[in-house]
């Protein structure tokens, strides 16, 4: 299709009519004046692809728009300029986008799983076909992070990205922190409020945050980090005791997604990246992100830290971001200015065992003399020094002993914990988290 | 010039070789690999316009680049694709940009004074000539606010903008808060550190923040607010006592720039906008913005609040933002996708006397009985109720009496203060600030 900007309506084929798809239809109906003012042309939806074409759904469509259950009817319709993919999942969505690109359609999607796990060929195809792929809705909810990395920050060397990329987990941790709830109750409450799915795996086990981090790594560093190799630890086993104890030290526990570029002595770079719960000092802005909010902190050589904060979840917010992507297409955006990094190379990865960090440790020990001495000996064996120790009061003869370490590697930490367990002084598995 | 993307270098004419201009030359030299990776083509500077073409300056130029003192030599050079204006000021910069646009050059500028005060004809001319004007560097330092408002948030109805847009004032207020300095000492320190100009008027009297707010209003609301009519109050008279007293109530005093759209009953909208010192509760993210940092909070109907935080000052950070704008031009950005709001209309303005707010008030009174009663009577006359009162200990018989009011209008507040003064109970001018 021509890239000159016309005043003809931009014609959309929409795949998926769930909450985000329904929200997009609503915004397109309600915001015609805004759209006209922003881009000087209409945006009309011509076809909506659904699995079940019910009369109830047909009744929600704008005039002149029809339901279809046939993918090709959407991808191959010559009148359609842009396909909006809001089906989710990887298999069918990949097939749809691939076929639409073959037909020269631009793509707007909010599908982070697909983009993180299986999109290399799609971006390649988009380049070949001179088509736009926009996906602001796929990362960090309403925070304009894709646009920020591709345009205003394009002139910076980003050194690290750190953030809270999953609103559901953050809601659960916030409730555990503020109201002293345990994990199961906080999860149930999040489900009742519609913040968590019936199967919360993607959210609470960290995979959703890892999907988003994979996309941010590509945009910020021009590096490909294979999703399957990313270290991911979620919050399913989070004990409310640790949240309370961390607070006594002045910290909040957050599910952190982090990627950090290391410059090696020989001029090469290696990437450290992963998702993990960590203690964040309460004076940091990231510690103050509450509820379903997301936040991203970017550090760059020239600009210093930039912190972005906004809602991380919700159908209508996501729909509004998808609409913004559509506006960019309507405005005559071209593939060249959507900010693809021109050359993506495979990242050289810092092995997780080499990561350096301070640690918070909680062990349950019997209230006998000599235990602290034995524990300290195991840590000292690995050259780990203990910075602060709290010994809590007796609970049925088993005492939580909590301490923070000076900086060490994940490997040394893991070996020290192994030794502590072998020393036979623990009454339960040790718990330890990184401190940011 | 053609808008097709080529692999030919993008040729730049640079006007101004101060700290930002020098920083840009440095980044263009150091970041060739980044530029190639981001946009697949070179960016070369062909000419630099300066007032004095000294040999020292000539020595800093890249190969093949020459100094000139003749504006037309820059604007009329057919080899130049884009003119970067970093001279500052309004007169000469306006002439330069106007002439460059006439010659069909794209423009990148960081000149907020010019854009806020005298740019209507320039944007008009850019549209006629199909030229790009980019100006991310002109607002809020490293915070990607122009890009955010024009692209990722384009699908939202923004309802309000609130932020800290001047790094110098924020540095001064932060020092007064953290170290108990008075205004004059904090200003001197800011000057010594290079954060404040020898003439700090633009910064500390609020005009710089007002310039930036004018630009944000245009981008966010599609409204033109005449800069000359904007209510602006700076921090030059800030007394460190008020900063300390505000803290006792749990607040920080910040120089706030705010614009808020009011929907009237008849469907029309009116805009409330201005720059003023205000008390912000310490739990708000905006209260936690320290030093030379800037922050912007956007509220929109769909996305909820979005908060952006980053460095607000510095030559190299601004140069990096200018570079990002150049990358967008190099990438084949077109005038249509730089996010001009298509129709700018004159804002209907809420008169400052109608603004509603809670207030912090400090009056100096003699330590006699009946004073509080008389004061409360003056407030009650204007239907202003007092929420919290602190009476401080005696200082040479003159006592600061501090209170916070419930919400009232600026007009009622001003009349009440007038009455208090007429009642003859004050030993000094009253001080009052809005509470956000």
Compute the separation of the termini of chain A in Å.
Answer: 49 Å
Sheet-strand content of chain A, in percent, reads: 25-35%
What's the assembly state of these chains?
Answer: homodimer
Instruction: Give the helix proportion of chain A (percent range).
Output: 25-40%
Query: What does the overall shape of chain A look like?
Result: elongated
The most extensive interface between chains reads:
A-B, 58 and 58 residues
Helices of chain A, by number, come to 16
Number of strands of chain A: 18
Average pLDDT of chain A, to the nearest integer? Answer: 89
Which regions of chain A have little confidence, pLDDT < 50, spanning 5+ residues? Answer: none
User: Main β-sheet of chain A: number of strands, strand sense, barrel status?
Assistant: 10 strands, mixed
Question: Structural class, judged by helices and strands of chain A?
Answer: alpha/beta
Alpha carbon gyration radius of chain A: 24 Å
Put the structure in a nutshell.
Chain A is an alpha/beta fold and 436 residues long.
